[in-house]
Amino acid sequence: MEQEAPPAPPVAIAPPPAPSAPMPMPAPSAAQAALAPQAERSLREFLDGWRNAWAERDIAAYLQHYHPDFKGQAASPEQWRAARQRIISRAGEIELQLGQPEIRLEGSDRAWLTFAQRYRSKALNDEGIKQLQLRRTDGRWLIEQETFTPNRRK
């Protein structure tokens, strides 16, 4: 005759742990902390070079600031580059003022630059906020994406 096994003792279920404060972000390593000022300096130099090339209508230098695959809103990088060449060459004198950039680094090879931009040429007068997403490729910062949000017209 088979005997029934005695019932298992009840198992106590612990209540969920009380919520705690969010864990602080780890402090950057010494290497990352040392890299940040150097990266910020190189990003500011990059931004100055991009701005100067655009304002001086140096199309070749301007385009060198963009990743080869960058296409903006165009169907292809080649179409975007052709459009930029056409627009910049026809702009006449360009007045380009940039505000102090907010720089956000992600690791040692990605960065976002956000700044006020004021552009004036014979064809266009525009002010707004520009954001550039950059990636360091072969030791050089290059623009992968950019957005421009115009200020509201009054």
TrEMBL record:
Residues 1-36 are annotated as: Disordered. InterPro entries: Cds6_C (IPR056203), NTF2-like_dom_sf (IPR032710). Residues 43-146 form the Cds6 C-terminal domain. It holds the Pfam family Cds6_C. It comes from the Bacteria. Gene3D superfamilies: 3.10.450.50. This is Cds6 C-terminal domain-containing protein. Residues 1-27 have a biased composition (Pro residues).
